[in-house]
Design a protein that fits this description.
single chain; 1 helix; mainly beta
Length: about 130
Amino acid sequence: MSDPRDMSGVWYGRYASSGGDQDSGFIAVLEESGGVFSGSISEPDGRGGVRRASVAGRRSSGLVQFVKQYRGRRNHAVFYEGGVDDQGTQASGNWKIDDGTAGGFSMEREKFSIEELEEEIEERLAL
């Protein structure tokens, strides 16, 4: 059986600076294999557009560590460290960048099992 904490999937989250001057939502699409994961993050750029970054990280049991690397005009790395719950539906922790700016993050996802989806389809068809 696979580990339910596997980071693969679509995550919806928020990050905020410890000073409270930065708060933003994001969507992360991640793929994990053998405790190593990668993917991308999309978030508002503050000007009505979307800013994208690549993600590379590791998960060991419930501990997650990853780097979000922006490209283009805002080319810099953000270092994240935190934990994922036993069900693999919530993760949270802290982030920091080299200039000393730091804050917290949280993200969550819904996980579906094939059995639950099949049961729901059967129930809807029976109506």
